[in-house]
Amino acid sequence: MKSTSALSLIAGAVALAAVTGFAALNEPSGGSTAEARTATRLPVERTSLLCPAPGLSDLSETAYTAYTPSGASGGSATAGTAELLSSAKDDEANADDKSDEKDKDKKSEKDKADKPVVSLKEPGKPATGEASGADSPALIGTATGRLAPGWTAQQTTTIEAGDGRGLLGISCTAPDTDFWFPAASTAKSREDYVHLTNPDDTAAVADIELYGPDGSLKSDVGEGITVPAGSGVRVLISTLTSKAADDVTVHVTTRTGRVGAAVRAADDKTGSDWLTASAEPAGTVVLPGIPADATSVRLVAFAPGDDDADLGLKLLGKTGAVTPAGHEELHVKSHMTAGMDLKDITRGEAGSLMLVPSEKGEATPVVAALRVVRGKGDKQEVAYIPATAPVGARATVADNRSKGSVLSLTAPGAAATVKVTASAGSGGGKPVSKTYKIAAGTTTAVTPPLPTGLKGTYALTVETQSGGPVHAARTLTETVNGIQMFTVQTMPDDRGTVEVPAARQDLSVLDD
Is the pLDDT of residue 105 over 80? Predict the structure, then answer.
């Protein structure tokens, strides 16, 4: 009798890859790797994105933009859906209340939660939605079929006045179980919240650890935080410790389930923006897209392992890499957050920062982020740039307008060529593509191409054509009340495809 267990294992791995983007199939014990066939990359068929609750201000206005690139790696045969839904749920604690008024309120809330805030209908054309006020909930998004590969969503909030003023932008994140956020703070001038969003039907349990310049900021309050199913919670990090520190690294992990995590950082003088997670700890990290007119840049780094890290700083500018005078190296002690004020490091020329081991062969993994300020006096505005992974095959950022977008492209190693495509507009227009060559060790900052006949907002997609890895970031600027509010979104690979291993041999001939 022929066995189907091995065939089921292969099928299960392929299905897992298509749905989640993660799959592994180990070589059978004693098998020869020489017999393994080349793996195949297939487009994902289902993906999730989570957008945090946009703000704490009644003055906030939030725009959402969702987009899937056209011809995303072949795509799926199925049409699919892509929707961002409110995380609001019925309050089942009041299920025994028979009041007609209560029932009407509950039905209204359920109808609101079931109606998509954004519904994408086709690849290649952005879809938009909006929300306003302090009570706007987090959004939970799912894309399937041909709308899943490369699906991205942007949340952009404008707050014109108050302590939390600013242009707050975030590329909605995929759920995960482990996040690092350098550049947070528990200082009295700051009000930083960790936002946790649970996309699943069962509760998640998360832990929040804080690390300051002297090490761990011990607290039991950050342990075992329950995030209800299909809901979001926010935690003010200064309530987790009695110690005030300018530079804090936040580590979010889950004991059960998975969450989307982001930090909303607000400062008395410089306004607010989102701080997204740093790329996974690595010996060399790249922080792309420092604006040319930055008036203050602060680097914050953390070494999560048992070894200290000695890092060399390199500024990758228009003409090449230089070591900033007076800021040549940074020593990061294990489990301690290190900060360095780089002041106006770009000096009128857009650039990117690269951290490398000071000594060859002594690479200690770190996470890092930049706090970037533009403007002076009462017109200062802040944004955050985390260390980010390369563009890889393709990366996309949504919600670009007719004015105000700058695209930064960095080749930290070998020279590279990329294709940048401006999509059709959400209200009309035709896509346009342009090719850029980035010299080795440089940053190219450009005003991206505009779609022909643009109406509404559009998306920018960067695809690596040849050469070494490229890191990218988009800066979006909007002038409000004479203040140049801005936000920076990094552009890592969209993980629209997954590598699926081929069968090592014909399993149909295997017997029990």
Answer: no
Specify the pLDDT at position 503. 57
Residues in CB range of 240: below 8 A, 6 or more apart: 208, 210, 217, 219, 221, 222
Q: Which of 482, 457, 375 is nearest to 155 (CA)?
A: 457
H/E stretch holding 244 reads: none
Neighbours of 95 (CB within 10 A): 9
Both tokens assigned to 21: 């983007």
Confidence of residue 301 (pLDDT cuts 50, 70, 90): very high
Helix (H, G, I), strand (E, B) or coil at 169: strand
Distance CA 16, CA 45 (A): 10
Q: Name the more confident of 306 and 14.
A: 306
Q: Report the candidate in 287, 321, 313, 292 with the shortest Cα–Cα distance to residue 442.
A: 321
Spatial separation of the C-alpha atoms in residues 55 and 132, rounded to whole Å: 9
425 pLDDT exceeds 90?
Answer: yes
* pTM for the full predicted model: 0.88
What pLDDT score was predicted for residue 113?
55
Number of helices and strands in the chain (H, E)? 2, 38
Average pLDDT of span 375-382: 94
DSSP 443-468: EEEEPPP--EEEES-EEEEEEEEEES
What CA–CA distance (Å, rounded) separates 458 from 450? 8
Q: Measured between alpha carbons, how far is 9 from 6 in angstroms, rounded to an integer? A: 5
- DSSP letter for each residue of 102-140: HHHHHHHHHHHHHS-SEEE-STTS-EEEEEESTTPPPEE
C-alpha pair distances (Å), 92 with each of 54, 157, 290, 375 = 25, 31, 47, 48
Give the alpha-carbon dihedral of 235, 237, 240, 241, to 10 degrees. Answer: -170
DSSP string, 144-165: EGGGSTT-EEEEEEEE-SSTT-
Q: CA-CA distances (angstroms) from residue 454 to 63, 431, 462? A: 18, 9, 19
| Residue-averaged pLDDT of the chain | 87
